[in-house]
Predict the 3D structure of the following.
Amino acid sequence: MRLPINSPKRLIGTAAMAGAAALIPAAALAATASPAAPAASTPRCATSGLVIWLNPQLGGGYAGGYYYNLNFTNLSGHACTLRGHPGVSAVNLSGQQLGSPAGWGSAKLRTVTLANGATATAQLQVADAANYGCTVTAAGLRVYPPNQFTSKVVPYPLGACARTGPVWMDAGPVQNG
């Protein structure tokens, strides 16, 4: 009987294949024993998936101004999150900003997770613009959801300041509606 003579290259290749074959069960065992991959995080709410609206009935008047609820309803088809203050400014009929944008207080920020169809609210305080010597009427509000660079205009006529300087609106952080 004649034994085959193997070249060094063939012997190295065979050893490598045998080693790899021996590692396959160990790799399979490690894959089943490892913890499950973390669930994908919930994305931020994109402006395109939100309906933004103002609800004056849920607000309240005070001497020199009014509180409104600025609402963000998620109609994206999936859950999403909002965190922070919305950007708010008054606009004319052409969509041009009137005066200074709303200020932000120092309230604690929370991440709000919105299921599809759910609504989050930010309180909007609007001072009587006449207190600042302003007599312009805005056509509505340009609203940027927190951490977004795209806005929507909410039609709602209200007294406004056309000049920059006075900050006559204050937007609170989003909260669970």
User: Anything to note?
Assistant: Residues 8-33 form the longest helix (26 residues). Residues 6-39 have pLDDT under 50 and may be disordered. The first strand starts at residue 50 and ends at 62. The radius of gyration is 30 Å.
